[in-house]
Amino acid sequence: MPQRKVGGHTVLYQGLTSGSIGVTASQKREELMMILNQNIQPEAIVDAMLSSEASWNATSIFAAAVLIDLRSIERRRANDAN
After folding, report:
1. Are 48 and 38 in contact (CB under 8 A)?
2. Is residue 65 within 8 Å of residue 17, measured between CB atoms?
3. What's the average pLDDT block by block, 10 residues per block, for the chain (82 residues)?
4. Which residue of 15, 35, 53, 57 could cross-link 11, Cys pair, CB 3.0 to 4.6 Å?
5. CA distance 15 to 44
6. E strands, the chain, where?
């Protein structure tokens, strides 16, 4: 089973390909929804995460990938402004 470092912890995950080159945010979201077997809604994400270890890991990987993408976008904008 694939492993990834998230927040200083090594986590196991099934199927989520976050961080893959060419994978869009909406593709990552669709993949997470398939793993969780439900739509991602702010009011339901905690329950979905707590439903299983695989769901927790997939959600954690997804959130980390989103933050990495946002930081990358911010750096590009800052570099372009200079």
Report:
1. yes
2. no
3. 52 48 73 86 88 89 86 90 82
4. 57
5. 21
6. 3-6, 9-12
With H, G, I as helix, E, B as strand and everything else as coil, classify residue 26: helix
Question: Among candidates 60, 82, 51, 65, which has minimal Cα distance to 19?
Answer: 65
13, two tokens = 């995950």
**Looking at residue 12, what DSSP letter applies?**
E
Question: b/e per residue, 52-77, with b = 16+ CB within 10 A?
Answer: eebbbbbbbbbbbbeeebeeeeeeee
C-beta atoms surrounding 31 within 10 Å = 19
